[in-house]
Amino acid sequence: xxIHRLRKLFSPFYVRCYILVLLSLVSxxxxxxxxxxxxxxxxxxxxxxxxxxxxxxxxxEFIVQILSVFVFALLLFFVRDGIAALLRFRIExxxxxx
Length: 98
Prior knowledge:
Helix 2 runs antiparallel to helix 5 (62-87). The chain has helices at residues 2-9, 12-30, 33-39, 46-58, 62-87; strands at residues 90-92, 95-97. It has 5 helices and 2 strands, in the order αααααββ. A two-stranded antiparallel sheet has the order 1-2. The chain is mostly helical.
């Protein structure tokens, strides 16, 4: 039983979670999230938010840019795994069936 729990802790999903938390902690020491939220546009227009984040990312340190790329790649892996998990199920009568 203990080996099964250890295997689960070192599964690809959990390893990606550990890496994501580690990258988030490192980037939190380099970036002031309070200033990011304070300087964000207060509108609902998506284009203004995209412009803000692209400008902010392009004018930041190189290490923060690299960390952002890794975090984005990990998030894409999570989305891919979630979609793959959903496609393994089928819906019958409003109920997900494996």
